[in-house]
Structure formats: structure tokens, C-alpha cells
Q: What sequence folds into this?
């Protein structure tokens, strides 16, 4: 709730968007919303050196979401042999 309040008043808050992405990904397992917030972090970060680490982390989470989606669409990718 606190993060959403911050983003209501400052929608371009990089760390707020990042933290909310983490909440949606790891806490709520809502990959669609998490992806939205991580993409916004990357967009807002641009080439700003101060945000290089958080931008890299957001991209890593986006890659992880894509991998999870690919695994869900390809049942043989989970390593289980039937």
C-alpha cells in the first residue's frame, strides 16, 4: 500500500516502481503486473549511471519472467519425463 501511495504522487519514482515489481513477482506471483513495473524501471532509468544497478536487476527479473512463461508453454522444459 505504501508503494502504491508513493507512485500515485510520483509515478516516475524508479525505486518505487522497482520495489512494486518485486512485490508483484515474488509476493503475489502476478508476472503481468511485475513485468509492467520492471519495464517502466528500465524506461525511466535510461542511461542514468545512478540507476545502472537497479536497471540491470529489473532486466534480470524480466528475463526470469520470460523464462518462466516459456517453461509454462513448453511442458517438456520442466525436466519431468512422462
A:
Amino acid at each position: 500500500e505504501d508503494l502504491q501511495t508513493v507512485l500515485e504522487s510520483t509515478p516516475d519514482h524508479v525505486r518505487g516502481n522497482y520495489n512494486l515489481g518485486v512485490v508483484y513477482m515474488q509476493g503475489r506471483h502476478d508476472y503481468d503486473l511485475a513485468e509492467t513495473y520492471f519495464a517502466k524501471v528500465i524506461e525511466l532509468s535510461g542511461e542514468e549511471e545512478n540507476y545502472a544497478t537497479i536497471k540491470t536487476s529489473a532486466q534480470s527479473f524480466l528475463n526470469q519472467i520470460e523464462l518462466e512463461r516459456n517453461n509454462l508453454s513448453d511442458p517438456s522444459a520442466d525436466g519431468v519425463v512422462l
Summary: The chain has a mean pLDDT of 88.
